[in-house]
Amino acid sequence: MSWEENVRKAVPYVAGEQPNKPGMIKLNTNECPYPPAPGVQRALAQMDYEALRLYPDPDTGVLTDALAEYYHVSPKQVFVGVGSDDVLSMAFMTFFNGGKPILFPDVTYSFYDVWANLHGIPYRTCALDEDWHIRPEDYRQPNGGVIFPNPNAPTGLLESLETVEEIIGANRDSVVIVDEAYIDFGGISALPLTEKYDNLLVVQTFSKSRAMAGLRIGLCVGSEKLIGYLNDVKFSFNSYTMNLPSQILGAEAVRDDAYFRAVTGKIIATRERVKGELKELGFTFPDSKANFIFASHETIPAGEIFRALREADIYVRYWNKPRISDFLRITVGTDREMDRLVAFLRDYTAARG
Ligand code: PMP
User: Which atom of ligand 1 is nearest to the CA of 86?
Assistant: First the structure.
């Protein structure tokens, strides 16, 4: 027998590339094009480097308290992790532990099936309708849990709070996870519903709207009972998931709501302007409420546009996968970055006739 027979075999998630070329335009991983809040820079400059000698607070008190205050919930209803990927993976491990398949959309964040496979969780996907919307009636079948992003990724489409609540209400015997990675760009959060539904977990991230992808900060809010179970698993796994700088700087970011609103407002304005310009160039897309646009051209295959953009050092995301191979996912950058993207696409589509 070979030792390899005892190895856990996993098919990993493929993250967007992180090139670092001077002058490039990076619109491929939905990062924020603006810096974090100014208070974060000050706190970073004032950070006591000697404190790095010690383990960080395993209960992540400063950050959890800041978030609890911001969202008007008890600190016992908040859990943070190393990006929302960490929070989600932990939540899969904790809550999706029955024999029945968990449910999620067929076109969605492509980490869900990776975690399901890693943790040995059976799953079933539910097809989005022809307009890329979730059909709530699909989530009325027996299941071991439900997860979906709102807005969905990579479509950017937002479901109404009524639809979200309909799905939660129909699944009182399962944990329902709403992945709100992109909720701050014009969506209405399901977070207040955690008061009403003890089986609801709302997950968010600092990677997009708070411009801190490099620090890896994710969070979730749920009933004290849910968060208690999550902590039991976390503390059986790794007590110190979140490092000290992330805890301090994350808390600092939460305290500056004016900056947060200004940045998300700018991104929303840029997104709406670029939608009009892309339409003029022959692109169509679901009406995104996220910080990206999922666009398809009426005549030119997406893979070709992707490669042409890449050669011009403009990076967007493209998946050669069923259902979505005609689309590019374009992150909303600064106005200048988007001007350059649109200018390139104007010339390119004109040259292609
Ligand atoms: N959920 C969705 C839907 C995402 O697109 C992403 C970003 N890849 C994440 C969660 C994870 O983001 P992070 O780990 O940076 O918080």
Answer: 14
Q: Model confidence over 281-316: pLDDT tens digits?
A: 999 999 999 999 999 999 999 999 999 999 999 999
Question: What 3-state class would DSSP assign to 214?
Answer: helix
pLDDT digits (tens, 9 = 90+) for 250-292: 999 999 999 999 999 999 999 999 999 999 999 999 999 999 9
The residue to mutate among 179, 204, 288, having the most atoms of ligand 1 within 8 angstroms of its beta carbon, is 179
Under CATH, which number does the domain 38-255 receive?
A: 3.40.640.10
For atom 6 of ligand 1, the residue with the nearest CA is 181
Cβ of residue 171 lying under 6 Å from some atom of ligand 1: no
CB under 8 Å to 333, separation ≥6 — which residues?
25, 26, 27, 33, 270, 341
What CATH number matches the domain at 17-35+258-352, 3.90.1150.10, 3.40.50.1820, 3.30.70.360, 3.40.50.300? 3.90.1150.10
Dist. CA 155 → ligand 1 center (Å): 14
